[in-house]
Structure formats: structure tokens, C-alpha cells
Specification:
alpha/beta, Rossmann fold, Alpha-Beta Plaits, 2 domains, six-stranded mixed beta sheet, four-stranded antiparallel beta sheet, 11 helices, binds adenosine-5'-triphosphate, binds magnesium ion
Length: 311
């Protein structure tokens, strides 16, 4: 092979002004970002934000309508065949073959990469072990639970030992046990220097796994940064929630220029670690139900993308 493995820190994905239109409707409206080798990079956003459309272009499944896309310094439009062998993909939808066994699904996929049969077998066994699927080796995929099928999809994405692993909602629908197992596996793969692009609706997952992330909405990137930096910058470190808040509290906060969101049943106050405000709310409004808690990525997400339902 004429390719050099990527060095840690090297840019391996460069997205410039990438756009995707479906029948004139813009799903991705000119996004730009770069991912370095060894990073876990998250794409977050409400339903319909354009995450899947963006990553389908990155793994060469759909041609961009505009902009450019370089993976391993190669142009996706010209060099997809060379890129493909170094990328692993777990799509949002289940694309396993339901009539084949767990093992056959892995072996057939290995065939697409021209991996020799004995090597494919060895690799498949390793992956079955890694994802705790050995006992299901001969089971038909159509008979697997959703969680097992997801684990197999991830195993399949790794059959070619890819450097870049693209995961579209890898843990959606999984129970907490399976989700934690997958997080453990993703951490182990990161320790081996793999690079990840990940979409998820679980903010805790994004905060835990991603070095950097973007929050998208309506095809555009709203913010980019490290989870802790984004929390600090957009909502501050601490939050006060007050149930049954009344006009008196609203006026009190407005006078002191403290930011807050007003919900039907409560106020979410972004007091940015201001001890005086916290003290005043405790003392003056203790008859309401007050919760004092750390701010999370979910607060940032809701603050930026709003609380209305999407598609
Ligand atoms: N093949 C397609 N043809 C037409 N419109 C599409 C197609 N695929 C996606 N869209 C539209 O593009 C927009 C972005 O969809 P996309 O699937 O990229 O969102 P997403 O962020 O992945 O959402 P989710 O969180 O629900 O998976 C949506 O309005 C969707 O309806
Ligand atoms: Mg999607």
C-alpha cells in the first residue's frame, strides 16, 4: 500500500463549506470543521439538523452539493476508493443482513475489503470477543435484540481495522448496560489511537466521549468547542431551577441582569457561579422548590436550539 499511517494530531478530516440540498431544500448549509488524528469529534443537533446528511457525505455515501471534503488529505470526490479501506462506518439505520448469522455478516463484510479468508476469520473472532458476542456467533441476525444488533454493527464497522470510525447514533435505543459497555469499548479503541466522528442525542455521552463537538441546527453549525468550555461559555458552571416561580423572582433576576429561561412550570437560572445570587435565591425564595445543580451540555443544547419539537 502506498499510504502512510496518520500521525497523532495530524488533520485527518477537513470539511470546508460543505452543503447538501435535497430537491432544492438545504439539509446541510455550508459547514466547516477539522478533526485531528486520535480525536473524538461529536456532531450534535435536534432531529433533522443535518447530522446524518453531513456524515453520509464524509463516508462517501452521498455526493456533496457544494464545498469540499478531504479525508487523510485525499479528496473524497476523487479518491474515495483509497479512503474507504481506512474508514469504518456504523450507520444510523440497521444495515445488517437479517438472514445471515452474526459471523457470516462479519465475514461477508470483510470480503468487501478483500481481506483474505483466514485473516477475516481471525479478525471476526477477535471482534466477537471484543463486543461480547461469541455466544451469538451462529445466531441469525433477524433474531437478535436491538442492542445485540447494534453491537454487531459496531463490530462490523471495525472489520477492516479502520483509522477513522464514523458512528451515527451508536447507542440509540440501548439499555444502560449495553451503552456503558460500548463506551468502555470506544475508550479502549481511543487508547489505540483511533479517530472518531460521532453523532448522539445523549448529552452525557457526548460530554464523556468527545474531545470537541459542534452543535448544529437547520444545517448550520451554531457552536464548536470542548464540552467543558462550551458549558462554561454558554450557561456557566451552575444552574438554579425554581419550580412555581412567580413575577417577584422574575423581577429580582431581571433587575440584577441574571440570565434565565422561563418554562411553564419553572425558571432555569444561569447564575454563572454568582454566590450572591445563589444566596439571595436560597434566602428569599426558599418557599418555592429550588434545585441547585451543575450545568450540563444538555443545558447548552437546549439554550441554543430551543425547546420546541422538531420533525
Ligand atoms: N434522502 C433525503 N431526501 C430528502 N430529504 C432528506 C433526505 N435525507 C434527509 N433529508 C432531510 O434533510 C434534513 C436533515 O436530515 P438528517 O437525516 O441529516 O438529520 P439528522 O440531524 O441526522 O436528524 P436525526 O437526529 O433525526 O437523525 C431533514 O429535513 C430531512 O428530512
Ligand atoms: Mg440522523
Amino acid at each position: 500500500m502506498d499510504q502512510q499511517p496518520t500521525a497523532a494530531g495530524e488533520i485527518i478530516l477537513q470539511v470546508d463549506n460543505l452543503g447538501k440540498h435535497y430537491n432544492g431544500v438545504s439539509a446541510v448549509a455550508g459547514i466547516s470543521f477539522a478533526v485531528r488524528a486520535g480525536e473524538c469529534f461529536g456532531l450534535l443537533g435536534p432531529n433533522g439538523a443535518g447530522k446524518t446528511s453531513a456524515i453520509r457525505m464524509i463516508y462517501g455515501f452521498a455526493p456533496p452539493s457544494s464545498g469540499s471534503l478531504r479525508v487523510f488529505s485525499l479528496d473524497v470526490a476523487d479518491d474515495w476508493r483509497r479512503i474507504r479501506s481506512r474508514v469504518g462506518v456504523c450507520q444510523q439505520d440497521n444495515t445488517l443482513d437479517p438472514d445471515l448469522s452474526v459471523l457470516q455478516n462479519l465475514l461477508i463484510f470483510a470480503g468487501y475489503f478483500q481481506i483474505p479468508a483466514d485473516q477475516a476469520r481471525e479478525r471476526a473472532e477477535e471482534l466477537l470477543h471484543f463486543f461480547a458476542l461469541e455466544k451469538k456467533r451462529e445466531a441469525k441476525v433477524g433474531e437478535l435484540s436491538g442492542g445485540l444488533a447494534r453491537r454487531l454493527t459496531l463490530a462490523r464497522a471495525l472489520i477492516n481495522d479502520p483509522e477513522l470510525i464514523i458512528l451515527d447514533e451508536p447507542t440509540t435505543g440501548l439499555d444502560p448496560q449495553s451503552r456503558h459497555l460500548l463506551w468502555e469499548k470506544l475508550h479502549a479503541l481511543r487508547a489505540r489511537g483511533k479517530t472518531f466522528i460521532l453523532t448522539t442525542h445523549y448529552m452525557e455521552e457526548a460530554a464523556q466521549l468527545c474531545d470537541r463537538l459542534v452543535i448544529m441546527d437547520h444545517g448550520r453549525i451554531l457552536i464548536e468547542g470542548a464540552p467543558t468550555g462550551l458549558i462554561e461559555a454558554h450557561v456557566g458552571s451552575s444552574i438554579i431551577e425554581v419550580s412555581g416561580a412567580d413575577q417577584e423572582l422574575v423581577d429580582f433576576l431581571a433587575e440584577r441582569k441574571v440570565e434565565f429561561d422561563r418554562m411553564a412550570d419553572r425558571l432555569v437560572i444561569y447564575n454563572k457561579g454568582n454566590a450572591e445570587i445563589e444566596q439571595a435565591v436560597r434566602a428569599g425564595f426558599h418557599s418555592r422548590q429550588c434545585t441547585f445543580r451543575s450545568a450540563t451540555l444538555e443545558d447548552v443544547f437546549l439554550r441554543l436550539t430551543g425547546r420546541e419539537l422538531r420533525e
